Amino acid sequence: MIRRDSYGDRVELEGYAIIPGVLSVAEVERWRAEVDSASATMTDVDAVRDRGSLYAIRNLFDVIPALRTIATLPAVRQLVEPVLGPKALLVKGMLFDKSDGANWGVFWHQDLSVPVRIPDPKRHPDVPGFGPWTRKGGVVCVQPPVTVLERMLAVRLHLDPCTADNGPLRVLAGSHRHARLSDAATAEWTRTHQPIECLCDVGAAIVMRPLLLHSSPKCTVPARRRVLHFEFAADDLPSPLDWHERIPLGGGVAAGRNG
Ligand SMILES: O=C(O)CCC(=O)C(=O)O
Asked: N or C: which end of the chain has fewer CB within 10 A?
């Protein structure tokens, strides 16, 4: 019987949790400044734009290398370790930005694709269970087997308050325990389950299993909503694959396992 009273059990059962006060005021201010200055100056490779306005930054560690230190923050480790264990790796960073200019939304989906390194970026290796392959912002991405996704966790750090009006993340609790969902199964979940709006204050974290069905409405009252979205994995990938980023929890050497 899973107990509901501990953080790790709650994430296991519901697929998400909202934790206030993970970033201090000073940290929020620092990362807001870094994100805004990067957004103003970055090249188009990692920028995702909506009619000219930036709404996401991919490959965030290439754009803001200092963000690798997120893996060393005790408050972040405390969210990751109970779920993935002490050997977890930070493997992906993104910024999601909603604003007056970029008021976007996304339909119900699971996060199925992960960024990887492969020996020859022009030829995808044949690894059982991995595929299809894509390329996002110059980085090779692949859908891994569900067993990999089941041992991952997203930590979303909020640089602005997230209200019912500025396009909060919505989740269907428990949907992550049903592996990869077909379009029909997703439609059934959305018909039969009540979505939960993940509202939180600035500095809060929302942790989420990537297989949790989630969506995001447009702002009804446009207000800035910057979220640093990080993904952690419990394990290495099978050779010759490696994570595109592999930053150990607690910091340390960020070199790839294969190189
Ligand atoms: O930030 C959001 O509201 C949605 C993000 C999203 O769709 C995702 O993480 O896949």
From this structure: N
Ligand 1 pocket member 146 (CB < 6 A): no
**111 within ligand 1 shell (Cβ under 6 A):** yes
Q: What is the mean pLDDT of residues 149-174?
A: 97
The count of domains in the chain is 1
pLDDT at 2: 43
Q: Does the CB atom of residue 229 touch ligand 1 within 6 A?
A: yes
User: What letter represents residue 11's amino acid?
Assistant: V
Query: Which segment of 53-67, 113-127, 178-192 scores lowest on mean pLDDT?
Result: 53-67
Cβ neighbour number for residue 118 with a 10 Å cutoff: 20
Task: Find the domain containing 132 and state its range.
Answer: 11-240
Domain CATH for 105: 2.60.120.620
Q: Give the angle subtended at the CA of 140 by the CAs of 205 and 16, to the nearest 5°.
A: 20
Q: Find out whether the beta carbon of 160 lies less than 6 Å from any atom of ligand 1.
A: no
CA of 255 to the centre of ligand 1 (A): 28
CA distances for 124 relative to 111, 135, 139, 155, angstroms: 21, 11, 13, 29
How do residues 226-237 score in pLDDT, each as one tens digit? 999 999 999 999
* pLDDT at position 256 over 80: no
Please name the helix (run of DSSP H) or strand (run of DSSP E) that holds residue 33, with its range, or none. Answer: helix 25-41
Name residue 218's amino acid: K
Cα–Cα distance for residue pair 204/136, rounded to 1 Å: 28
